Amino acid sequence: MIRAGRVTVAGAPVSDPARDVDERDAIAVDGEPVTPPGTRVVYAVNKPAGVVSTASDPQRRPTVVSLVASEVRLYPVGRLDVDTTGLILLTNDGELAHRLTHPRFEVDKTYRATVAGPPIADATLRALRRGVMLDDGPTAPARVRRLGDRELELTIHQGRKRQVKRMCEAVGHRVRSLARVRFGPLELGDLRPGEHRELTTDEIAALQAAGAGDVGAGQVHADIPQAGASYRQRE
């Protein structure tokens, strides 16, 4: 890579693999800055409707990554549907992202859903708490509470496609709006749609604790490098 002229230091191509550098040097590969080893950043974002949960979009729709101006390349932790709003995390740490999203680590995500149909019955709550059968198999039991005649709060640890919407449809309630309000120990709080904030060291530690365990250790989310690793964005 160096001999091919793909690596630059302070904007100038280098050709000597033995070139000495330190943390003050701006190093880039193919024009992309290299993140110093061990640098981990995590942002909380309140995703608005119409924004896609990807790093890039071929249809040129706005992405959650575009909402945060960052010197390091960020990737979403999991996905929210384009019409689903609320809390999503962005990070450059692939191992942390893997542990927060892999169902084996059972990290809770809490959603608030406004649904259509008749008022929510006690039987509906019991069914969701037991788990419901979907076309790709049964769901794990959910923690559910009724917030109003047509509003629910559901906490699940699985991450199947459109899971909350399909669970509600399975018990006779089409979802009219859906927002994620909690991810593991982290709450959405008072972030307004489109706003973001960088997490504190204590908050990142709490997320790490939520994803702690030895199942899948060492695996990395397919689309996200570990902090400090060199990489090229997948097409």
Distance between the termini: 19 Å
Alpha plus pi helix count: 4
Quote the average pLDDT.
87
**Overall structural domain count:** 3
Class inferred from helices and paired strands: alpha+beta
Which bin fits the share of residues in helices? 10-25%
CATH topology name of the largest domain, in short, is Alpha-Beta Plaits
Shape: elongated
Low-confidence stretches: 213-235
CATH superfamily of the largest domain: Pseudouridine synthase I, catalytic domain, N-terminal subdomain
Main sheet: strands, sense, barrel: 9 strands, mixed
What is the C-alpha radius of gyration, as a whole number of Å? 21 Å
Order of helices and strands: EEEEEEEHEHEEEEHEEEH
CATH architecture of the largest domain: 2-Layer Sandwich
Q: Strand percentage, roughly? A: 25-35%
User: Can you tell me the CATH class of the largest domain?
Assistant: Alpha Beta
Tell me how many strands there are. 15
Question: What does this protein look like?
Answer:
By secondary structure, the protein is an alpha+beta fold. The chain has three domains: 1-34, RNA-binding S4 domain (Structural Genomics Hypothetical 15.5 Kd Protein In mrcA-pckA Intergenic Region, Chain A), CATH 3.10.290; 42-104 and 189-210, Alpha-Beta Plaits, CATH 3.30.70.580; 108-183, Alpha-L RNA-binding motif (Alpha-Beta Plaits, 2-Layer Sandwich), CATH 3.30.70.1560. Helix content is 15%, strand content 27%. The chain is elongated. The protein starts with 6 loop residues before the first strand and ends in a 25-residue tail after the last helix.
